[in-house]
Amino acid sequence: MNKKKLASALLGTAMMGGLLLHAVPASAAPVAGGSTGGSVGFSGHIPPTTPSGGDLDLVWVPRAFEFGNSNANTTAAKTYAATNGATKYVVVRDQRVANGTTQVPNAWELTAQASTLVDGGSTLTGAQYTFSGNQLKNYNSVSGTDTEAPESVGAIDNALPGGHTAAVTANVTLPADGTTTVKVMEALPTTIDGKYATELNNISLVIPANTSQEGKQYVGTVDWSLDDTI
Q1: Which residues contact 120 (CB under 8 A, 6 or more apart)?
Q2: What mean pLDDT comes out for the span 84-113?
Q3: From the CA atom positions of the chain, what is the Rg in Å?
Q4: More confident position, 209 or 26
Q5: Confidence (pLDDT) at 53
Q6: What is the per-residue DSSP string for 24-83?
Q7: Which of 84, 90, 162, 190 has its CA 20 to 30 A from that of 196?
Q8: Beta-bridge partner residues of 58
Q9: Model confidence at 20, in pLDDT bands (50, 70, 90)?
Q10: Which DSSP category does 36 fall into?
Q11: How far is CA 222 from CA 28, 139, 156, in A?
């Protein structure tokens, strides 16, 4: 049984003076991973910097989740909507049957884990990301090389392969606690080859009351993991 760990992460400017999300491995020795730096004027999505290179792989993840720059220490819980687009995509490619890697389609699972958000000795306790109304989409590469970013015209559509068993979690709550792993997308053992995209919608960051400190720049990570050992 082969377990593939593909870690990547997001970098963005967010609330409380700036939330920087950068990559760390999802396990001690990941098969693939990626680190993200700052950028201006580039695509809203990035490929993992160290993909597995195999027939089951993580192709695209969001470049950033941004939530503005409010520094207020609110006395009530507050929800901040993403300011850099309410929709993002995570894309998985499975070509194991077509390429003879496996004779029987295998299951796979995409999960996410978010670290705590910290600035020095200050921790943004209880923060969590929410994604609602998520949908399963097809990723289409006109070039056949998977180099088209998901926001490219025609890259995302509803033309899913017939007979697929892939599914997304419609509503995801991802605690920024460094321990909770949340399922984002999965496929059963009877799935078939395809390029499957999780469409993350209504992206928000929820901050509990009396936890943020004015002027702080909280830093954290979000890791994506693709496993084939369900």
Answers
A1: none
A2: 87
A3: 18
A4: 209
A5: 79
A6: --SSSS-SEE------SS--SEE--SB---SSEEEEEEES-----------SS-EEEE-S
A7: 84
A8: 92
A9: very low
A10: -
A11: 16, 22, 23
